[in-house]
Amino acid sequence: MSKKILIVGGVAGGASAACRLRRLDENAHIVMFERDEYISFANCGLPYHISEVIEKRNALIVQTPAAMHRRFRIDIRNFSEVTAVDTAAKQVTVNSLEKGVYQEDYDVLVISPGAEPFVPDFPGNDSQRIFTLRNLPDMDRIKAIVDHDKPASAVVVGGGFIGLEMAENLREKGIGVTLVEAADHVMPPLDGDMACILEKELDKNGVKLVLGDGLKSITDEETASVVETVSGRKITAEMIILAIGVRPATAFLQGSGIELGPKGHIIVDDQMRTNAADVYAVGDAVQVKDFVSGDDTAVPLAGPANKQGRIVADVICGLDAHYKATQGTSILKAFGLTAACTGLNERALKAKGIKYLKACAHPFNHATYYPGATTIESKLLFDEKGTILGCQMVGRSGVDKRVDVIATVMRLGGNVRDLPELELAYAPPFASAKDPVNMLGYIATNVLDGTSKLVDWEYALNRDPETTILLDVRTPQEYAAGHVEGAINIPVDDLRERLDELDPDKEIIEYCKVGLRAHIAYRILANNGFDARNVTGGWMTYEQMNFKPQN
N or C end of the chain: which has fewer CB within 10 A? Predict the structure, then answer.
């Protein structure tokens, strides 16, 4: 007897599960419910159609109900919202535009409701000038305003993925954009010393940044609205994009007996089973394990949702499939820059009490003698055993493949000692003989082997001048163009002859432009009996950290 499998929600998780189920089982009766019109669309591409970087709207529609039924013989019911689940009776309640309210029985239930934009309670949150972006109708509403009303100004509230993508694409349409972020930097997956590189790029491209200042209220006026922040700043805008975050769309599961986490996410095991018999859940609405810490987390990304959909289908059909935690590997385009990361950042590691070491570097994306070489600002986080805890990179080219390599090493159980051993593709237009991934591995391995001692700028800038010396080992010309206050200058090439200028009873904290010359200086000092430290990332990291956007 064939199983009757109900799937609540389409897009990444639900649609992936449905198609895989049919490929594995030709006889199953598969019904997919979607509360909106579209069952499978590229939601990550929505901002780019607003600016018409993606010209054709239909390019975002991955699969239509008719096409999916024709190929997979799936009973697709869009405009049908599941409003309740009775796990004891194995039945769902459906509110359908066509059929009204009715009940549908199931043998197996897969829940993939996704997440919805979070709109907090504040004065003016019902303004008609407020927009959120979750689906194609949301995109259509924003695009209609942009194309027909041609607003001159917009406020984007929230500096995460959607916020930054919307800021960029509104600027592509010539709209003046102010981005308001309650945290002290944009892009929460990045640490502040990496996010500031993005902030500089946003500032350069005309996005006004208001950081460390959250939204307080919105007041509508005749032709625009006034956005007031917690600090009292007032910004006038003709449209407002709320991109504060998302929350799981699981309110309909209240009273179902399906166990939810503290923020409303569905609790599942590593085969995506809920606590209810024959009920599975996937996608943005589920609580999963963090790959690095093993703690419970929720990561609303398309890649994990697609994988989970496939795993659910495999498990339902008797295959031994498991979801092995989420790394949070993600990437963002911000004008000419790419930012990507995997694993945990420093802020998360500190919050979890996980001890870590870090290596910062500024390698070039390809051979410097080939035209167009640009730097990849890189940070690798690892522990004393060499376990990779996280990686962040920002640059103009080649960021994606390097972060993907490190994410793969993490997933396969490798550590920092494996990074120098990786044999990666090299030709001058694409890389250097020592790839940026190799370079991060060399730096980290030196730390583990004790041939280098790294500190960060927080350590260096909070030094005790009575017991330490801050040493700049760049050239006199570089030093004159800009240096850290209190630093003395001895170029690395002169260091051996000028060791007598340094007090051997003091700790020497030295830096260069990116860290390479400082490492050579460290070896000279250490081999001559000095207690030395190398500031990881060097002067370039210092300059980036001290960028202040104009607003």
Answer: N
